[in-house]
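Q: Protein A?
A:
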Amino acid sequence: MNQPLTAPRAISLDEVRDARRRIAKTIVRTPLVRLNVDHPRDIYLKLENLQPINAFKIRGAANAVAMLSEQQRRLGVWTISAGNAGQGVAYAARQAGIPCTVVVIETAPDTKVNRMSELGARLIKAPFDACWAAMGDREFPGVEGTFIHPFDDHDFIVGNATMALEIFEDLPEVRGIVASIGGGGLIAGVGGAARLINPEVRIWGAEPETAAPASQSFSNNAPEVFSQWSASFVDGAGGKSIFPRMWERIREVVDGSIVVTLDEVKTAMRIVAEKNRVIAEGAGALAVAAALTGRAGKGPLVAVISGGNVDLRRFAELIGVAILPE
């Protein structure tokens, strides 16, 4: 059972503040720390990798689950995920005593798959294309229950937006925020709230060169399919397309998307590990890579470390081949 699909609408600060109170006992108020490198722009890191599931998705998932009716809860919940959204929904569902199923993209790292299982979720693996199609259809063969969309869900986006309240409280002088774009739920929430708090702050997405539909969409002023998509270690961001509904949500609150190379992402992963002792997965380092290019405008800049769910052996391999700037 799913709620009737309604037209996308803008978030309000009142509902973001309500969501913060609602999820306060589930999430962590993550720190904002300065990136310890000499750079023409002051760059700060919003450490969402320190959430209980090591990713920001717990904010949206906790709020979405909390907003379910009793009838929806009785049916159980399900979602589609490469790992972080699945962990968020599974974590919130376990707290609420609700059964949870996750349709998992088959290329999801074992680290994320194992954590979803440990949180009690029933897992069904499927190819990326089937999962991407199911996100649009909001159904998957053999799966029943209340669907919680991993990004195109108003309550999920409002939960994500609570991060913006913390950023402005900790760094009132912020001039730019950079966040990775996968489906768009993170930047829709943070960007939407930021625009309400201070319309002068610039909001930038970050995408890998292998999966950059948002950049293409901003260039053409329409939701686009990225025909050159390929899988990479940046598994938590970068989709094959921007859903039209998500384009409606982000086009007015995001200034554009900065595309970075996979080598730049590896370098960003290594820099935050060496300079701040922060473990960021590929998607989590995207925003740092984009900020380091200098294309995000005047600082101070906040780069959202959206997650840190990466196998440590793989992490060591990736940063071991990273080329640091001289």
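Q: Protein B?
A:
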Amino acid sequence: MLDKNNIPKHIAIIMDGNGRWARERGRPRTDGHQEGIKRVKEIVKAAAELGIKVITLFAFSTENWSRSKGEVSMLMRSLYHYLNREINELRTNNIKFTVIGRDEPVPKYVRVKLKEAKDKTRDNTGLVVCLALNYGSRQEIIDAAKKFSNAVLRQEAKADDLDIDTFSDYLYTRGLPDPDLLIRTSGEMRISNFLLWQLSYAELYFPKKYWPDFRREDLIEAVKEYQKRERKFGREYAD
């Protein structure tokens, strides 16, 4: 049984293993991505039922543009169709959708659909689903530093006032709590330029299952593992 008083507020997920899942079945990589998209709906629903407040999904990194044009094109079309199908359900289920990452060079038709999803769910008060698209954490930190520098030049901020909390307000994730738990599927044990600042004190969990095989019960297992751990936040002993 889960301890309802110790549910992570924010879970970040690196949805890894789609290509390997497909290859091991003798199928094209695109089939793995299509199957992975099906898991998104299931995990989002499970997260809402568990009382998780925010779930951030690493969908596409700044480095992923180096993949084949065909694969990138398929991923963008799949995202568009997923949002087109799910926007009304997200709104009905009180789920708020948001996205982090740079706009360019995401295709315009995808950006339009992302904006529609954000606008239609803006006033929802339940689970926040944050999609990391065309996202890279190092770039995010550089962008935040530039925003703060420009604020200082405009005399809207003072350099000496900069601290951890202030800097966080210039990140893409402004207004969201830092993740309590990071899940990376497929057994790979890397952060891969994902939420480097925000994951400073997160618990890390690396299940061996590929993302297309990651189901509701696997999310529950991850939360159970989280609840077994003693979070120290840099202290030698937790209070």
